[in-house]
Design a protein that fits this description.
alpha+beta, Helix Hairpins, 9 helices
Length: 371
Amino acid sequence: MSKRDYYEVLGVSQDVDGTALKKAYRKLALKYHPDRNPEDQEAAEEKLKEINEAFSVLSDSDRRARYDRFGHDGVGDLGGFGGFGNVNDLFQDLFGSIFGDSFRGSRGPARGQDLLMEEELTFEEAALGTEKTLEVPYHITCDTCDGSGAEKGSKPEACSVCRGNGEVRMQQGFFTMVRTCSNCGGSGQVIPNPCKACKGAGLQEEFSEVEVNIPPGAYEGLRIRLRGKGELSPNGGPPGDLYILIRVEEHPLFERDGDNVICEIPISFIQAAMGSRIDVPTIHGMTSMKIPAGTQPGTVFRLKKKGIPRLNGPGMGDQKVRVMVEVPKSLNKEQRELLEKFEEISGDSKDCNPKRHSFLEKVKGFFHMEE
């Protein structure tokens, strides 16, 4: 089978620089990682092999130059991985351990897979902190096959590709490269007759309750790590970690601005003109706030230390209260007569309408108008 063009595989042009190349690889490697494609891991693994091979060539200036000149013949047969040992290191650097050690290629029992769960909080829960009990899906040893993955009466066999080592060594010139065996996934064994209950995985799904402490000041997208609360290792290694991804519901009254809370409150034009005291909702409860006489629409008041606690640190944000002056949409006869009387008494006073007079003065100056 002919190989696809490496630039086409990564979706980049031939003049791509190192930064853009690495970004393209990162995006595709995440997309096709087998852990993100549980419905078809085999196809995802093959796609990832192709991506890794393309990147291992194009990220090396000498090999890229040979490839640009001679095509695939210029870089030889890369065995489907193309220097996979180096790409392994890059994958770990880029993505950390969120996918476990499935690409580490190290000897010895691998640690269990990391788990990622989303937890939706109310605005108040995220701001003030809370405790949650989560139902976390785990995998335990299959009761039917006792974890062997093989049907009763049969057993796993040593992998014929790596001869039970779990690794395949490739010699290229003076260099020896080691990669995880793709035939057995690094276990060193294959299962000719898989267990029907667990489909050869040796594991069953089970749910367990985990207590999670959400700290005050949590925000949308915060990721909380619980060490050792992930999947158990099938080979006796350490368990993985559990990551909780925080989602926050929208609030009908409040918006968040860092550690501050923003709230818009409507007031009447009488309250704005004459001044008043109003009750203001905060995430800490109701509080009273003074509206000075002559308050203008859109004025923002600050309620100190009525905001959100700083995440993992001392201090508290403020609440910003933006007042919106509400103009009556309809007036009865008596109300209209009173307002007309008010207008008659006030006249076009600068004291009553300073902004209007300032605007008119600017208009006159702009058009050179005379009194």
